[in-house]
Write a structure and sequence with these properties.
alpha+beta; elongated
């Protein structure tokens, strides 16, 4: 399970819960045409420490989709979302395509 992300600053702290981080990843995935998280509640593993993150996720994709291209686009969108929204530097986004629909 993803740990909450706590960002501390001079005015206090902001906590992003594990659910919020997973939802952020899920929202990034659905911006990619044809990509779908296979198990939205359990299909995302996000680990973070010292402002850096790694993500593993399981996808479902439609038959006939160029899978390497789909996976690369998902990797880019997830990394962009986590960097822009949560301030995390993303080391790696591992995509596993579990199902062809």
């Amino acid at each position: 399970m993803t740990e909450p992300l706590v960002v501390r600053g001079p005015g206090g702290s902001v906590t992003l819960t594990a659910a919020a981080l997973s939802r952020l990843v899920a929202q990034a995935v659905i911006t990619v045409e044809g990509a779908r998280l296979r198990r939205p509640r359990r299909g995302v593993d996000l680990q973070h420490a010292d402002g850096r993150a790694t993500v593993s996720l399981e996808l479902s994709a439609p038959h006939g989709t160029p899978l390497p291209e789909l996976a690369r686009t998902v990797q880019e969108r997830v990394a962009e979302a986590l960097t822009r929204t949560a301030g995390l530097e993303v080391d790696r986004v591992d995509v596993e395509i579990e199902e062809i629909t």
